[in-house]
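Two proteins follow. First one:
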Amino acid sequence: MATQRVHDVVVIGGGSAGYAAARTAREAGADVAIVDRGPLGGLCILWGCMPTKAILRSAEIAALMRRAPEFGLAPVDVRASLSAIVDRKNRLVREFADYRIQQLRDPAYTLYEAPASFLSPHLIQVGTHQVAAKAFIIATGSIPREDVVPGLNTGVCITSDRLLERRDQPDSLVVLGAGPVGLEFAQFFARVGTKVTIIQRSAHVLSHLDADVGAALGAALEQEGLSVMSGTQLHRVVMAGGRTVVEVSRHEQEQAVSGELVLNALGRVPNIAGLNLSAAGVTVEGGRVVVDGAMRTSQPHIFAAGDVTNLYDVVHIAIQQGELAGWNACHSEQAPKCFDDRLVAEVIFTDPQVAVVGLTEKACQRRGIRYLTGSYPFADHGKAMCLGAAQGFVKLVAEPSTGTLLGAQIVGPEAGELIHELIAVMYYHGTVHDLLRMPHYHPTLAEIITYPAESIAGQLNAS
């Protein structure tokens, strides 16, 4: 027989967004419960950010070692052990996960390790318990998308979650999709010795970003030996002769691309199956939980944060959204705090890295926003040349009358670190003139930012 329990705030999901929401609500003095069906840890720690960056580091070192003669060093015979790489990754993930589990099991929270399902807008079923609350926060994350191409959901394709656990190196890998996940896995496996083919529908990789960004990264990957098939229409995935075959059409010609493994990297979708959101009266559109700027759903006491909203699949934003949801859930009598997307940033940890903040040219054009741009290549930058990392460029986007930074895109060495100077300047609504007035040590990678700033400043003076 079900027992009923009552809390001030119930957070469904214990990942990055969920824990941030729970912590914020607890700091506000609320009685907080966390519901997580397990395994505990969340996507970022178990299958996303941390494990992928661990394996990418191994591949990065292998690639550098192979370039030893370029730097006047004796050649090195580099042999990757996928099993040993996975062991290192697992040790790191376990350490990260143990700390998160310790946080979730803090006596300050009530933790329910079971699936949750809404019975009504104010009541959920959790195992043998019925749990009521003044406010709910949905933070159940996302799962790989399997409804895009026939055959994806038949078990013939592998997901990134499963690929992270593979210990036997495949001789060939076909990657469906050229977004961040697909590209990071593609380069990793290519660098440890697997033949990799990337299949994408768009004209360039990272189709959500500007074409020059995608073109620069795509060229770098092809230079490393990866095959990038752009403008390719996917039809179906089947098994044939013990190999996985992807049937496609390209340039109006039918083709079949096969590999030992095919990675489904065609995106992720909100994980809402089983939540019974219709019983809660929560609006769902296109498979995502609809929220306003305060992270509130169609029910004023139910909030959502992170991937389940399908707004941004970036961890630091999920945390920010979780904190907003947690605060707003506990302060209904005050004006809500709302999400500001002006400084949304993204980093893709390929080599060269790609980093973005704020508006791209594509976004400005879509929104009808006037802008100026300036760019400068790493191939003409002294420190990058010394490092042997001269691929890519820095591009700034600025307001055309004041030079206020609207956004930036970097393709190149340490792009994920360099972008933070631009985030800081944009945080304070800085201009290209501010970038030029700020001292930049020579020789550093960071000083490259001054060159596109100088270009835009020149355009401003000429107008």
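Second one, unrelated to the first:
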Amino acid sequence: MKAAFFTVLLFIFTFQVSNAQWVQTSNGLGDVIIFSLTNNGDKLFAGTYANGLYSSTNNGVDWTPSFLNEVCYSLAVNGNNIFAGTVNHGVFLSTNNGLNWIQTSLNNRTIGAFAISGNNIFAGARNGDAGVLLSTDNGTSWTQTSLVNKIIYSLTISGSNIFAGAYDTGVYLSTNSGVNWIQTSLNNRRIYSTANIGDNIFAGTASGGVYRSTDNGINWNQTSLNSSNGFSLIVYGNNVYAGMGFATGVNVSTDYGISWEQRNEGLGNFFIYAFSILNNNIFVGTGGMSIYRRPLSELTNINSVSNEIPNAFSLSQNYPNPFNPETKISFSVPGTQNVSIRVYDELGKEVDILVNEQLEAGTYEAVWSADKFPSGIYYYKMTAGNFSKTTKMILLK
């Protein structure tokens, strides 16, 4: 009887592990190349290579055409406005969540990137005079900035700084809304993607993986994710997600790019061209097999339980306790705050970081998988603003 019970438990555990993976979600799309992803509210948009723009209103389960039959290299959202950067036909604008589209006056370029700061909309071009263009009137008119004749693959805004990733000439920086640009010290690589967490600027390169600057582009260092092509980057909280080339796939860093973990379970060997995050799920656009989806909690071990605003910070006892090898820790945040939850052994040595990011108000659940740790007493400590609490837990193998 005990053997049968153990077999059932083993089956359940194996089933859960085997389902912790990426799942293709392309009903209505087919197996196509996805160049761009974004979302406006609960509506997802996907720019395909051959079939134009598609949208989904049920978390990526089903996709329908979104009335823009253009190859969309880039997508961006600014309030109720959605901008689509197309091949050779410039920028299209929708003011009604993708139901209708109008071609803006920027109508004869290939647009590979957008960045938005207030009323300033920057567009990175890949042909014509190329370089970076600017609209200050919601896309009605566009002017060329002083960065010209550079093929732009990516744009990122960090405070008052704008970073432009160029084809074979590295990263450029403007500190005055695109009026002037300087070439940074990362100047001899093809830049596919850029992103930032505060003053940490990340650049995905051709063949060299991901680089990071901690001083606004003055100096750059190659991270440990140092091979393959960094086609796409997205930041969520204090976590960085990098979409790479064949066999490298999706990589996650929870410590500002110092270390990376490959998370390709069920994904296959595809180029990862685009990311979007919606409803606690992360979506990736691949180079040939459409879109895959996965819960964020499977990649970062944290999941939103409730958006109801708590009255105060709280940290609950882990459950189950004792546990083997996984346990859940619930905690609450009453307002936007940088939250840290770290695990220590009985001697006080830090052994793991469960949470280290800025979170909105709500109740969350973090998961600690302790399969690589020995049995014993451990402590987890939450710090957020002036709040600090430490709780004991027992790993019993």
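SUMMARY FIELD: Residues 133 and 144 are 4 Å apart (CA to CA). The radius of gyration is 22 Å.
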